[in-house]
Amino acid sequence: MEGAISRARRAEASSASDEPSAQRLVEIYRLMFLSRAVDDREILLKRQQKIFFQLSAAGHEALQVGAALALRPGYDWFFPYYRDRALALALGVTPYDMLLQAVGAADDPASGGRQMPTHWSSRALHIVSSSSSTATQLLHAVGCAEAGRYFSRHPEAAVKDPGDYREFRDVDFHGDEVALACVGEGSTSQGEFWEALNTASNQKLPVIFMVEDNGYAISTPVEVNTPGGNISRLVANFPNFYFAEIDGNDPVASLRAFQQAAAHCRAGRGPALVHGHCVRLYSHSLSDDDKLYRSTTEREADALCDPIARMRARLIADGIQTAAELDGMEHGLQHEAAGAAERALHAPLPTVESITTHVYSEDLDPTRVAFATEQPEFAAEESGNKAAAHTMADLINHCLTDEMRRDERIVIYGEDVADASREGALNEVKGKGGVFKLTAGLQTEFGSDRVFNSPLAEANIVGRAVGYALRGMKPVVEIQFFDYIWPAMHQIRNELALLRWRSNGTWCAPVVMRVPIGGYLTGGSIYHSQSGESIFTHLPGLRVVFPSNALDANGLLRTAIRCDDPVLFLEHKRLYRETHGRAAYPGPEFAIPFGKAKIVREGAHLTLVTYGALVPRALQAAQQAERLHGIDVEILDLRTLSPYDWEAIATSVRKTNRVIVAHEDMLSWGYGAEIAARIGDELFDDLDAPVRRIGAMDTFVAYQPKLEDAILPQPETILNAIVDLKRY
Ligand SMILES: Cc1ncc(C[n+]2csc(CCOP(=O)(O)OP(=O)(O)O)c2C)c(N)n1
Ligand SMILES: [Mg+2]
Questions:
Q1: Which amino acid residue places its CA nearest to atom 13 of ligand 1?
Q2: What is the spatial distance between Cα 304 and Cα 519, in angstroms, rounded to a whole number?
Q3: Per-residue pLDDT tens for 633-663?
Q4: Ligand 1 atom closest to Cα of 213?
């Protein structure tokens, strides 16, 4: 049956906007009714407490089936939301697949029992795993469309390379594919909706936005979310769009609108937005009761618009089917839904042992020594030559340059990272290349479709990166300051870090986010000097790296770029151009594995576990401790915070029996709390003194240098703690 559906769909997609045949109309009705039948079956199961959540497409079927039939599964790309059952069915997801997710079965193809029902995913059909977060998926669709365009302009970039993530990231593209991005009318209030329209419009991307306007966001009516009550009116001035506002209860109107939209996109004219007015016939979900906030008159008026009842009446009135024939079909579909439910209820459940699979890549382990050898190849004239010593900023720029030469799938974008968006200016000017100049010269060497400025919108940067990466590309994006990463936090936590886990390994987004962080700037103040790394080490699925010197920054960034996991790469601004930690250029293959700490000073009396800008400060303190107090301190630079090198910590603590964990970030709930707790737990017998922590005061970093000095840990703070701890 699936084969028949897709054959019919292909015929429909290619026949432009001709009147659908009688057979086609029956097929549309069949899909709409099947969607409702599966919803009703799930509702029964929920009432019997055999499934745990239910959310229906009732009232949205006509709009969704029309959209699906205008597009091509496995060719175009789909970013649905949780109400898109009829869309998913029409694309080829089976009722059995849906019910496997409802019961949380091991074989649930969308998530292996990890996500709620109706959170669709299928690699074969190009349905990208969706979250419950409203509107995040729209930016993924934009990035996906950008990646498709990129591959069609750089087809050689699709080549696989066994030396890195590309070995595991298949690429397929056609040059005229479109991305469908679905959203409810309430969710158009999210900033990410507007951020997605921005880039789709500016870049004329082949994205079709489908706004499913049922007039309610749970209990909140449309006029509360949308000024004036009509999203079409608000978006009408975005350039390059094809717009259609339609009766979403009419599947033929929907099919036509999406055919027009797809033709506009495939011709390269820009994106489209189809706004369908539909009805929400049931409550928001089975956890909601719309009788609490909707009048009876209103609910009865919606019921009269039921697209299934209307389509049935139309088929009979047009003499396409008799009532008896339709009764027979409906009975068969209800039977199909019931049969699928029965089978799903007997499907094996996921094992508890499987819980931690697919948090990170199972294919490529960035802690593997073979993956990253840490063997520098200093050129003869560079080694030992002081003049050749490069800053951290230089060696990060060198790494980006080398990797971009080696891997054409890398794109770099962010705020102000380009040399000049107006390329003509580059004949007269040097170029910007980032507010810290880390990306200087990259646009000039690699061109504007590989290095470019983003709009001033952090969620846009990370959300698009997810879309790029799920197509097999490697976005290396910059967030201008750590202090401004927060608008992207939703994308980082709910999308980037957990895409792989929630889709049970089907999708992933191995993005690199380079982020300048930290204080000691003298005048950086509250919004240019914060730390906060432990907020990100608390996210499973994300790697967090924090180098303290030029060589480590170069080698760790290479591993970050070549690996198959998303990486937060924290670059301490104060260390960018410091004399401390400069190094010769280590060659284009120098890479440091994640999770390997470095002993930057050997010592016998006390272990100091630290990273980032506290490394040079700890070295200063250790020298004084030796000179003034005869205390011999061992310093471990963790280099990567997630994963971190527990073996190195344990070995050192077993040797010295005393330990301080020191970081620049605030003390309470900070990174050191976790390390200290684990030391207390697992190395209790090896300790001769309590575990000590050093961190900033529990406040923000102030502007006046006197205050900044007092707020952030200084070498004396560390020295005092060393001396104090040695007294035990
Ligand atoms: C970012 C975010 N905020 C809040 C929610 C909770 N929530 C789930 S659905 C929903 C209403 C969405 O309404 P609309 O976009 O109109 O879609 P509909 O459910 O009506 O199809 C809300 C508030 C969420 N899932 N994500
Ligand atoms: Mg709604």
A1: 217
A2: 63
A3: 999 999 999 999 999 999 999 999 999 999 9
A4: 16
